[in-house]
């Protein structure tokens, strides 16, 4: 993590201290002054202190502001869409509660207040909060070992986990850590999500075939289900296959019809009409309904601290997935979201879920897509869904007592199949085989090590790829093409010509401590291989956006070593921030101001002139 020094403010005691010495832009950041605001942290400079604090109360509650400013003409339409979203959310939330290992009604609690929290704090107009299959699976694998079979303790731990996840996300938002959304690379995230989808499916196999097995890691669970197939209920299998086929067919050919809702209603009606329980099909049975009682989980401090590490992992997944969904629909509908504010909104939603006695939740991609496809454009959709779900939880839970467990399993499996996309992993080979290899490694890590450990492996793989590509970035020797203005990589352009005695070297990354040794060793290798010997080395800095003290020292030492070999060191196309660093550290004076060129062509011309055109 790299922090930039905030610009000095007039009259600030810290500003004078910060002003001493050269300021260096972080990797990938614009140098001060490149935004058109000068170097003094003037308005518009997002690297100043003002970027660390909200500009007004409106920025803290953007969802509430948007609702107030929204014209009432669209409220009726969005309220109608909210009824549809609620109809889908009820069975889906109960299914996710089953997956998380808690009572189905808790899934309704996990949907209600989070919708209100996001409506106030969220920057997206369309995001629908609620239980998510990936996060539910993470919850179950995190809490089950800690609960040790105690159902009451299990419920307390799930709500405490949601509260801790919420606090982690809110803290991350306050620290402006929205860049975390891009930290998991696409290949690793693809592998992770495919692995999670298979784990989710494995947890529902027993429901679909009507047997009871202990649920654990992926491979042992699949093995136990396979061994128990001899005692499977054929009527349960037939019902499961029919309901799953119905959901998938509706998703494929009639996407506007809520397949999960149709399957749940149909299964409930059939169960009540034909007493499916008497035919060996397990049903939900009597449920304790009602609204959630708000309060903090009754756990000791050390029990809560045990949840911090897994909560941080769940928070990362929640944000990475939720921000991607919010960004997708914002781009589609022509508005913008704020990644840091999304952290706060997701955190508030999880916090109220924990206070409601529920479990960690996230952004529901299916309900968000349904809202968008139905014409929903504001958080009135979510607030309407909240009211409907609350009414159902308070008064209508007896209606689902005949619901077969196989129907809930079919709903969860259908949702998990939407996550599974092995073809996307295979298509990564079009970019590079290593991309597909990373995805497969993440997938196998999740399946073999579990969801949470697999997540840690996925994060480690992402960091490893980042570090490797930072330490060993692309570089090139440049040559001149007769019919093209400028210099090109000689490995990619066979006709590119190099001048005897002149080596033009381009480094395609920030130059700082992890890759300085690679930079210098590559130059030494090129100099040793050059025939005839190199007289001028021109380092093209056009791709270098950042340089640190280690790199400045290395360039100074390089100049000394080259001078001892009779080689002139020159720089071409350094950015303004690099020129300032070179000047402030004395590197420009050491190399010579005349040897810092605005272009490679100018450096090559100076080389030719210095040797009389020979």
Description:
With 614 residues, this protein is mainly alpha-helical. It has two domains: 62-463, no CATH class; 475-610, STAS domain (Transcription Regulator spoIIAA, 2-Layer Sandwich). The chain is built from 25 helices and eight strands. The strands form two sheets. It has a six-stranded mixed beta sheet. α21 links the parallel β5 (502-507) and β6 (536-540). The model is unreliable at 1-52 (pLDDT under 50).
Write the layout of secondary structure elements.
Layout: H1 13-19, H2 57-60, H3 62-69, H4 75-100, H5 104-121, E1 129-130, H6 133-147, H7 151-174, H8 186-209, H9 218-227, H10 234-253, H11 259-274, H12 301-305, H13 308-333, H14 339-355, E2 362-363, H15 365-373, H16 380-395, H17 405-419, H18 422-427, H19 433-449, H20 451-471, E3 475-480, E4 487-489, E5 502-507, H21 516-529, E6 536-540, H22 549-564, E7 568-572, H23 576-584, H24 587-591, E8 596-597, H25 600-610
Helix pairs in contact: 3-5, 4-5, 4-6, 4-11, 4-16, 4-17, 5-14, 5-16, 6-7, 6-13, 7-13, 7-14, 8-9, 8-17, 8-19, 8-20, 10-11, 10-17, 11-17, 13-14, 19-20
């Amino acid at each position: 993590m790299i922090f930039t020094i905030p610009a000095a403010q007039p009259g600030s005691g810290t500003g004078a201290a910060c002003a001493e010495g050269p300021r260096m832009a972080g990797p990938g950041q614009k140098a001060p002054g490149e935004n058109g605001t000068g170097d003094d942290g003037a308005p518009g400079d997002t690297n100043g202190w003002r970027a660390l604090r909200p500009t007004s109360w409106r920025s803290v509650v953007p969802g509430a502001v948007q609702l107030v400013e929204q014209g009432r003409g669209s409220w009726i339409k969005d309220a109608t869409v909210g009824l549809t979203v609620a109809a889908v959310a009820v069975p889906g939330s109960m299914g996710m509660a089953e997956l998380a290992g808690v009572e189905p009604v808790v899934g309704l609690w996990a949907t209600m207040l989070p919708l209100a929290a996001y409506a106030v704090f969220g920057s997206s107009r369309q995001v629908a909060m609620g239980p998510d299959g990936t996060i539910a699976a993470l919850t179950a694998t995190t809490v089950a070992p800690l609960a040790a079979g105690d159902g009451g303790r299990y419920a307390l731990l799930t709500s405490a986990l949601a509260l801790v996840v919420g606090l982690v996300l809110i803290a991350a938002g306050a620290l402006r850590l929205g860049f975390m959304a891009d930290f998991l690379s696409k290949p690793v995230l693809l592998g992770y999500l495919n692995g999670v989808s298979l784990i989710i499916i494995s947890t529902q196999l027993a429901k679909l075939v009507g047997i009871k097995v202990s649920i654990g890691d992926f491979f042992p669970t699949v093995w136990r289900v396979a061994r128990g197939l001899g005692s499977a209920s054929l009527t349960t299998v037939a019902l499961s296959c029919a309901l799953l086929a119905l959901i998938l067919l509706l998703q494929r050919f009639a996407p506007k019809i809520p397949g999960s809702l149709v399957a749940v209603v149909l299964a409930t009606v059939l169960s009540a009409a034909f007493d499916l329980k008497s035919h060996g099909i397990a049903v939900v049975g009597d449920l304790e309904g009602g609204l959630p009682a708000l309060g903090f989980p009754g756990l000791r401090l050390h029990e809560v601290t045990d949840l911090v590490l897994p909560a941080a992992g769940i928070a990362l997944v929640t944000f990475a997935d939720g921000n991607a969904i919010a960004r997708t629909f914002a781009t589609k509908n022509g508005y913008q979201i704020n990644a840091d504010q999304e952290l706060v909104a997701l955190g508030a939603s999880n916090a109220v879920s924990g206070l409601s006695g529920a479990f960690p939740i996230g952004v529901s991609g299916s309900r968000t897509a349904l809202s968008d496809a139905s014409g929903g454009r504001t958080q009135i959709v979510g607030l309407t869904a909240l009211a409907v779900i609350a009414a159902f939880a308070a008064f209508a839970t007896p209606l689902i007592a005949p619901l077969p467990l196989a129907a809930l399993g079919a709903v969860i499996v259908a949702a998990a199949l939407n996550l599974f996309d092995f073809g996307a992993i295979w298509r990564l080979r079009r970019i590079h085989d290593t991309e597909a290899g990373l995805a497969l490694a993440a997938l196998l890590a999740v399946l073999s090590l579990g969801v949470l450990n697999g997540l840690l492996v996925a994060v480690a793989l992402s960091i490893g790829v980042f570090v490797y590509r930072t330490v060993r970035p692309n570089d090139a020797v440049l040559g001149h093409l007769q019919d093209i203005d400028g210099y090109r990589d000689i490995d990619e352009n066979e006709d590119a010509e190099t001048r005897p005695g002149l080596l033009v070297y381009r480094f395609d990354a920030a130059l700082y401590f992890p890759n300085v040794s690679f930079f210098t060793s590559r130059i030494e290798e090129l100099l040793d291989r050059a025939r005839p010997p190199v007289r001028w080395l021109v380092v093209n800095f056009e791709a270098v956006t950042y340089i640190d003290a280690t790199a400045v020292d290395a360039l100074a030492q390089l100049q000394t070593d080259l001078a001892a070999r009779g080689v002139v060191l020159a720089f071409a196309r350094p950015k303004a921030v690099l020129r300032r660093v070179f000047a402030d550290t004395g590197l420009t004076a050491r190399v010579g101001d005349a040897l810092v060129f605005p272009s490679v062509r100018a450096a090559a011309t100076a080389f030719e002139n210095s040797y009389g055109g020979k």
